[in-house]
Structures are given as C-alpha cells and as structure tokens.
Input
Amino acid sequence: MISSGTFWRTVISGFIATFVMSMIAFIQGGIGLPVVDIGHIIVGSFNEVHVDEPYDILWGNTAFFMGGILLALIWVVFLMGRIPGNWFVQGLVYGLVISVVSGLILSPLVSLAAGDWFGFFYLDTWVPGLLILAGLIMHIGYGIVLTLCLKYAGVKGLDSDLTG
Output
C-alpha cells in the first residue's frame, strides 16, 4: 500500500506536470505546431452523447488534470522502480510511452466518442506529422517534469515506500 505522504506528493507532482504539459501544448502554436487543447477535446467527447451540451471547459480540464494525476500514480506504483536510469532518462521514457499509448489507443477512442476519427497516430487529420510531434513534445515535457518533481518531493516509488 502507498503511504499517504507518497500519495499526496505524487498527486501534487502529477498536477504540476499536467499544468506544464498544458502550457507546452498552448505555446507550441508559436513555433508552428498545432495547439492541442486536451480539455476542449474532452468536452467535445463528453457533449457528443447528449442532445444539448451540458459540459463546459471546466469539466474537460478537470478530466484532463485527473488523467495527469492518474498517470503520475501509475508511474509511482507500477513503473518507477522498473525503468532504469536517472530522473531525466525515466521522464523521457515515460513521456515516450505515454505518447505512443495516446496516439495508438487513447486519441482514436476519444475522437470516436466525439463523433470524429483522428486515426491511429492522428493519420486521418490534416497534419498528422505535426500532431505526432506536438504530442511527443507535450508528453516528454510531462514525463520530465513529473520525474523531476517526484525526485525533489522525495518520492522513490512503491517498492521503497513498502520497505522504508
């Protein structure tokens, strides 16, 4: 079982990493990459199944941040002790893993739920290469910030939490 201190430090680290990822997503437009507004995409998906539009951007961003916090918890509980390297290498690896899973599974499912089809790795969009690059940059940014925050928060993973 994870201690309450490790849990809350992980939640806070996940929140910070998600915030940084959302800022990266918005500023990418300044360098010619697509702006990826995950909260807006989630809202579209939520509202697709209703006659009216009961959800606003607050719900989309809440879901986005909860997803980022869950990814942080998944990292600490299942992966942190299994991926070799320092915090920077681990952040790169986790960001890459998240980007692959997002492009292969999550994004296609969310796009279908929103009434559209992005394709696997965004191949059925107007700029698939740019979207892949934008997603990769966002997710690697998330991974690096997450592992850095966890390092400075003193979170060493579930295995060390159980023994120490």
